[in-house]
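Here is one chain, start to finish.
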Amino acid sequence: MANKITMDSVHAFIAGKPFRRENMDVTVNSNGIYLRLHGNIIALRGDDGKVYIRNCGWETNTTKMRLNYLLHALNSPLKIVQKNWIWYLGNKQWDGGRTYVYDETYNLNTITN
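Its structure:
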């Protein structure tokens, strides 16, 4: 179960509303909507509706929780799991780099880099 800051920040990201609390913030500008954890952009929704995620090199439980809750809130079947210190997105090993996970126009929930 996600904690309150995770839920509130992800809901603000999806709604396109600015948010700031503790280590999370959502910023909105003409280029898109950005979800940040400790100042690092972990999710971006462009003005075209495409959502990208990344871990910015931080393979922590907090990063994983935030991104998994975002995927859940987008109704994506994808989930980040860790096995033997290796991260997987869906059933593919994931290096945490910028990855396209969602398109609000087509509700695309596949992994593409």
